[in-house]
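Lecture notes, unit on binding sites. The following record was shown on slide 14. It pairs a sequence with adenosine-5'-diphosphate.
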Amino acid sequence: MSDQYTVLVVDDEEVLRLGCSRVLKSEGYRVATAANGKEALDLLAAKPVNVVLCDLKMPVMGALEVLEEVSVRFPGVPVIIMTGLGTVADAVECMKKGAYDFVTKPFSIDHLTMVVRRALEKQLLEERARRLQAEQARNLYNLAMEQSRMHTIVNCMADGVLVTNREGEVVLCNSTLLQLLGVSASPPQPGPLHAYLDDPDFKEAIASLLAGADPDRNRFIAQELCANRIHLRVLSAPFYGPDDQILGTVTVFHDITHFKELDEMKNDFVRMVSHELRSPLAAIKQQHAVILDGLAGELTDKQRELLSRAHAKIQGLLELINDLLDVAKMEAGHGQLEQIPLDLSDILAELVELLRERAASQKVILKLEVPGGIPLVLADRRSMEEVFTNLVSNAINYSPDGGEVKIAAISRGDYLEVLVSDQGIGIEPEELPKIFDKFYRVKSPKTRLVIGTGLGLALVKGLIEAHRGSVDVESAVGVGTTFKVKLPTVTDMKGADGGK
Ligand code: ADP
């Protein structure tokens, strides 16, 4: 270990230089020698030296001058003075000038090595302290820079930002947030959440993130809130310390008022256009039916064929209009849903009866496997009819001749599961995530023949989610498709709503 360290022995007496060198080398040090102060300073400038062992009186340059130079040019290198008995007072003077220690000649080997070792230890400790100090200064600088950068980023953001500590108190927010929430003066920080946004759903979201019941580190909660007449899309997530403890939450507020207004305008437009189209189309369809029934005179085969085709197109248009109106209604809000305790087995049985003839005309067998006494769900009857009519109609439409469509309901305790499965054409895996999008239809030679709008499944998903349920699909091409609808049962919904 000590062979990494160099001791510089400075003495005009060669015997002493040699003697010290031998002793120190036997201890494992590297040794350099100089005959006077000037030589010593040249050596110090040329290579790293850890300790200087310097005679007090030398020709050319003595220890006092060496000390002065070392303290200026090589601070941190300890200098030990070697002195005769008669010059101890001078050696003490050297100590005052910054020498680390002195040894009086003649000195013992043990004494010399001990003093050198201590000087080296001091030098190493000072060196380490200097390094730590420099590192600390660097860290503080980096921290200050990071803080300043964060501060600028947060304050330049067009979105509102709010940070809480682990107690749920607000410790940071930007000016955009204060503007969005209409808070004129920034409340004190840390401050209570309600001083910024008094919304029970938001409070609950923050509390649930801080409770950290979910071990998923990528967990976040997305909400849509309305505050100060501004619609906000709100994303909250916890942040963690190095020990994986939740330290607080960060929430970003994005103003979506403009999109909401556009959406509202679009819905109004769709509603208006659809209403205006529906009545004349229904009248045209009725008149076609009268002509096709022969009530307006005999028809030639060609006329009948052309009118039948037009009749089918009008029917398609009317279905599109009805779907558009349903989607617009759904998107306008779920306030109109009249949610009452419903026995889905009745609705499903009626639906099967209603669609049996259509299934038979397409040579599809309908099977209902719903046991008696299934739990009730809190739901809007018309929505449920719409959901299952869409799913069962799709199952019939996308089934081959002789295919079987099965509707089954299973109680799963907190929720009811309704499965609509077919043995039809199936859906390619890459199409599955898209089929619930509005107007999305799978384009293939097999689906080309089925008339549709691509709105049915969007409607199903929207309505089921408005009932706090979910809809999933599993499919294998050429084997069949199963749609799985999950709806909370009445007891569970009471629990979830806290008896509201
Ligand atoms: P569409 O009016 O086209 O039926 P949907 O929104 O109901 O619109 O369905 C979207 C697409 O999903 C359909 O175009 C079809 O390709 C596919 N699809 C829906 N249900 C089934 C099913 N049971 N079997 C195979 N494909 C289906």
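Take-home: The longest strand covers residues 230-240.
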